Amino acid sequence: MGMVFGKITVETPKYEVLQACADYEIRKYAPSVIAEVTYDPSQLRGDRDGGFMILANYIGAVGEPRNSKPEKIAMTAPVITKTPEKIAMTAPVVTTGESSSSSRVTMQFVLPSKYTKAEEAPKPTDEGVVIREEGERKYAVVRFSGLATDKVVNEKVETLRRSLERDGHKVTGDHLLARYNPPWTLPPLRTNEVMLPVE
User: Fold this and answer.
1) Which domain CATH number covers 114?
2) How many structural domains compose the chain?
3) For the chain, which end, N or C, has fewer CB atoms within 10 Å of the first or last residue's CB respectively?
4) Residue 1 maps to a domain
5) What top-level branch of life does the organism fall under (predicted)?
6) How many CB atoms lie within 10 A of CB 27?
7) Is residue 48 part of a domain?
8) Which of the residues in the chain have pLDDT under 70?
9) Strand partners, 179
10) pTM
11) Which domain holds residue 136?
């Protein structure tokens, strides 16, 4: 029931707040192990979140885990999405990808902290799922509730970019979208974040 009302009861990534202001936080994230899949939504009936079920199958969130052990892996939050950057006439609009002409999306699950090295995590049976390590990293983050539509996310990213430029922070890459709740959570009670890597 808590998931309908937005309560986050699963493990979330560890971070230290380096700076907090009215507009955003600067966070330093601890190293982690992630499972990710990169896909073309047009091959999944246009579903931009089509990678979710691939990763859910890997960890065994639905049915038997599709990994070499097979071992059920606890779900964590958030689910992180990187999409190709689109350039509007005035500013960047979306996020990361392999190239601006690509329509591929990358979705990531941060694995539970008991996995400290990629080789400790069960090997996926789906060749599209990649397990890799992410080192310590620094992000500027804005949290918001409601539906994370493209329009809302783009507005949050552009506002965050302007705030960071104003305060002298250097953005070093494209944004990530972090969503903490399942789709059946009531929209006003959802927790979302846009994250921009900074120096």
Assistant:
1) 3.20.80.10
2) 1
3) N
4) no
5) Eukaryota
6) 21
7) yes
8) 1-4, 44, 46-47, 84-102
9) 79, 192
10) 0.85
11) 15-197
